[in-house]
Amino acid sequence: MESRDQSNRQLGRASCYSNAAKRQSYSPSVIVIGGGFAGIAAARALHDASFQVVLLESRDRIGGRVYTDYSFGFPVDMGASWLHGVCKENPLAPIIGRLGLPLYRTSGDNSVLYDHDLESYALFDTDGKQVPQDLVTNVGLAFENILSETDKVRQEHKEDMSILRALDIVFERRPDLRLEGLSYKVLQWYLCRMEGWFAADADTISLRCWDQEELLPGGHGLMVRGYRPVINTLSKGLDICLNHRVTKIDRRHSGVEVTVEDGRTFVADAAVIAVPLGVLKAKSIKFEPKLPDWKEDAIADLGVGIENKIAFHFEKVFWPNVEFLGVVASSSYECSYFLNLHKATGHPVLVYMPAGQLARDIEKMSDEAAASFAFMQLKKILPDASEPIQYLVSHWGTDVNSLGSYSYDLVGKPHNLYERLRVPVDNLFFAGEATSVDYPGSVHGAYSTGLMAAEDCRMRVLERYGEMDLFNPALGEEDSVPLLISRM
Ligand SMILES: Cc1cc2nc3c(=O)[nH]c(=O)nc-3n(C[C@H](O)[C@H](O)[C@H](O)COP(=O)(O)OP(=O)(O)OC[C@H]3O[C@@H](n4cnc5c(N)ncnc54)[C@H](O)[C@@H]3O)c2cc1C
């Protein structure tokens, strides 16, 4: 990518995979910032549309919040692991289908509450006694009923409130819906699962917005071999600079100048900004001139939640053959759950998944302390549990490259913040899960925003050059190959 403005320095080239030889000097140029699904999708689409593209990524790897770890000797996803919406309408379906990657169906349901079917849980009280399965199912149905009552509360109140407050109102009005004893604890567990979906506590989840998210049909499927092959395929042949942390973005009439940590600058006609919302909130990237107020407000007003994973590798399986093992308790904070990866992958792995305040508290611990805290939860329900041979701990909340797991609606804030985050500012185009109006907090949502930003960028840059017919559309059509999903 050559500088259009001779006063700017040429692109720095340290630790880049470069395909510079193929470049055509007349092509418009774009800098993509962030190598998660959104950034890679944007870079791929613009590259395929004959733009000169360089992608700057702060980590020493691509994938962002999609991270498949292989240190157990097989793939374990420490970030995203489900494809939400196993259907041909899913924008990731063509590539996953083409790669022949198997999926494991955990639920045929499309609700935001259940990415696992009710019958696939084994729940235990803290004294190790298993909760009878009919109680698990009945409380699950009662929870749905209670949530549908919160809709009436929503209709009646002009002001937004938290989902927790709405539940309190429902119980005040309808004492018959209150649950006690073990049923109450199971209800807390369902609340804990709901908090996991939003990566946030029930007292911060918006009643007005919580169920406004659009879900694709086809239910939820785990990526059995992990997400890594998908990101690797998408990134093939792209010019990616790892260990390039962007600290400043100058937008000028003639283009953009992007500065990285060591002071080097990159110039291009436009930039696609695909860093996480947490990074934008932290203001670790300086915008010159500053972003307009409506954009800064959207960044401030949208929530970022935390969900983490602690994966345990055991010598052999000693737990029941269900998809989820859960600990029920008197508050959702004390409840927890383990995803049984053995069911989907055949490997003896359990993944503990805390969210919200619990995840935040655990992230303050050392990895060793976090793993032993999680293992203690397992011991409560399976006292004979053997010690793990290996473990992995994620830190999505404190990692400076993410500063949160995924976005969600805060109480009292409008739902159109995702759109406001997406809207371009001059020649800066925004992508990432938090800019997805339809599918925030998901991999396919992030991917679609990358394609969208690429198309917006292509139109905008080419309009300026008056060469609209020269380049291919950024949103290419793909042949569809059916997805391979199963369940045991
Ligand atoms: C624990 C967990 C579980 C999840 N489970 C699922 C799931 O099962 N299914 C699902 O669909 N979604 C899931 N998600 C959400 C999903 O992972 C994200 O929505 C999606 O991966 C976000 O992609 P992105 O491209 O928007 O952001 P990211 O993947 O975060 O990419 C942003 C990139 O920007 C880079 N960056 C940051 N700062 C800078 C800088 N200053 N300069 C240059 N680069 C920078 C980062 O290193 C990163 O690579 C999960 C997320 C987490 C954390």
From TrEMBL:
Decide whether keyword Oxidoreductase is in the record: yes
Q: In which pathway does it act?
A: Amine and polyamine degradation; spermine degradation
What Pfam families does its record include?
Amino_oxidase
- For binding FAD, which residues are annotated in this chain's numbering? V246
Q: Which GO terms describe its cellular component?
A: peroxisome
- Could you tell me which InterPro entries the record lists for this protein? Amino_oxidase (IPR002937), FAD/NAD-bd_sf (IPR036188), Flavin_amine_oxidase (IPR001613), Flavin_monoamine_oxidase (IPR050281)
Q: Which GO terms describe its biological process?
A: polyamine catabolic process
Name what cofactor the protein needs: FAD
List GO molecular-function terms, semicolon-separated. Answer: polyamine oxidase activity
Keywords per UniProt? Oxidoreductase
- For the Amine oxidase domain, which residue ranges apply? 37-457
Q: Which residues bind substrate?
A: Y352
Family of this protein: Belongs to the flavin monoamine oxidase family.
Looking up PANTHER family in the UniProt record yields: FLAVIN MONOAMINE OXIDASE, LYSINE-SPECIFIC HISTONE DEMETHYLASE 1A
- Name of the featured protein: Amine oxidase domain-containing protein
Q: Which organism is it from?
A: Protea cynaroides
